[in-house]
Write a structure and sequence with these properties.
The chain folds into two domains: about 325 residues, Porin; about 35 residues, no CATH class. Strands 1-2-3-4-5-6-7-8-9-10-11-12-13-14 form a 14-stranded antiparallel β-barrel. It has about 375 residues and is mainly β. The relative contact order is 0.16.
Length: about 375
């Protein structure tokens, strides 16, 4: 039994290390519940796969940036599904509601299913038994507009992992965020601290780990004279060096025995700096169709192949905004092996089930 558990745990950690959207190569396996770093929204995936500092009433942005849990997403709901690699599926369901005195709240249930596995004994011989591995996270978020420009928010997380029979774990975590928004310029800057927490009940006694903490800052702006929004995120402020020097690609001078492919100081600095950045853009046509694209430098550097790099690190997507709901789709290239599919459905409940949608003039009159 111990052999099987250790083997399963090694497979689990390796899988998260390879497929996580927020890669921590030099610290792989040192965090618990790495599924919390996976990109959950098709819009976010299309624009680089990190998070979005865009305060534009999209409930999907509030999961990773709780300072967007405000009255703008009152009575909104979202469903998200990702068909990932190796039979892995994950996603979430979210709902937000605002109360006059208490502020705005949002409940989100995240899930990930790693598929079914065949059991084997300590000699490697498979048995007739199968088992599945799953993880869940319940997020309860709160946010408030302090002023027309400043907003704050926080998430509290309860996390549960079940990998094999009694091989289970439980953890808690929090996110905190603050945003500054200039309505006239449609400009937002956000600071987010995500996944600060700990494994309270570990798989094995004495092996508790911290959650994959990330401190980030980002800006977003929609241009005045062009229907285009840009986003720039700087992630992992708490850790400067995110590089991983793979020994497989070392080259040595046959005369001196020293490495001949060392980067210069300037190149090494630029490489370390760029691994923190994720950039994205969104072009909107007639407020109905949104065409999106993004680039994640760190993902490209860590998951590319030396012989053929292709479009690794790039992502794209499209959004359709109907009168009552919106649908988003994205593909994000992690490796030449293929790209996962992201699908997001979101809507405002009031609009979705109302028989008639008020015209803009009527909305303005009612809000006075």
């Amino acid at each position: 039994m111990g052999f099987k558990i250790r083997t399963l745990r090694s497979f689990y950690i390796a899988g998260l290390f390879l497929f996580s959207t927020t890669i921590f190569s030099q610290t792989g396996g040192n965090h618990s519940f790495d599924f919390l770093t996976l990109t959950n929204s098709a819009r976010i995936a299309a624009m680089g796969g990190s998070w979005l500092p865009a305060k534009d009433g999209d409930i999907n942005n509030a999961l990773m940036n709780p300072s967007f849990i405000t009255p703008e997403i009152h009575n909104s709901a979202a469903l998200n599904y990702i068909n990932y690699y190796a039979g892995i599926n994950y996603g979430y369901a979210a709902y937000s509601r605002t109360f006059d005195k208490a502020g705005s709240f949002m409940a989100t249930m995240q899930f990930i299913n790693y598929g079914k596995f065949k059991e084997a004994d300590y000699t490697g011989i498979q048995t007739d038994n199968t088992f599945s591995a799953n993880e869940l996270a319940l997020n309860i978020g709160w946010g408030r507009n302090l002023t027309p420009r400043w907003s704050i928010g926080a998430n509290a997380k309860l996390i549960y992992s079940s990998l094999y029979d009694d091989y289970n774990a439980f953890g808690v975590g929090v996110d905190v965020a603050a945003s500054y928004y200039i309505p006239d310029d449609d400009f937002t800057v956000s600071v987010v601290a995500r996944n600060f927490g700990y494994m309270v009940n570990p798989y094995v006694t004495g092996n508790s780990n911290w959650l994959p903490f990330d401190l980030a800052i980002g800006i977003s702006q929609k241009l005045k004279h062009l229907p285009f929004r840009y986003t720039i995120m700087y992630n992992n402020i708490q850790k400067w060096d995110l590089t991983y020097d793979d020994p497989r690609y070392w080259e040595y001078d046959p005369m001196t025995g020293e490495r001949s492919n060392e980067k210069s100081d300037i190149a090494a600095f630029g490489d370390k700096l760029m691994r923190h950045f994720v950039i994205g853009g969104e072009f909107t046509i007639a407020k109905v169709v949104a065409i999106r694209g993004g680039y994640n430098y760190q993902r490209r550097q860590e998951l590319k192949t030396e012989t053929k790099r292709g479009m690794v690190g790039f992502s794209w997507g499209i959004g359709l905004n109907f009168r009552r709901f919106s649908i988003d789709y994205a593909r994000s290239t992690y490796h030449l092996a293929g790209s996962p599919n992201y699908i997001t459905f979101s809507a405002n409940i009031d609009k979705l089930f109302s028989k008639r949608i008020a015209k803009p003039k009527e909305i303005k009159k009612d809000t006075k």
